[in-house]
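Bumping with the actual sequence this time:
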Amino acid sequence: MTKRMGRVIGTQLRWALPTLHAWATEHHSLREIGRDDVLAALPDDPMGRYTTMQGLRSIFRILKGRKLVFVNPTTRIHAPRRSSPDPSRWNWTNSGRI
């Protein structure tokens, strides 16, 4: 495993950990987690929703691939993509860069 892969894994795990800790108090296994649980756990802010979804997706994809869970509850759940600001909304007259 490269250093970069280790950082990616660590980052995605940190994104999912708060949700996993919350589920641990209510469930005995990740096999009990369903689509409704995932939707309820996603934060309201777009960036938090995106990062939590990425972390959970990675974990469930690996678990399903190793046949440790039977279904991936994150399938077909769309989180907003990270995006840059809309250039049409930029105030070019006050930016001082033109």
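The tokens above came from a reply further down the thread. Residues 7-78 form one domain.
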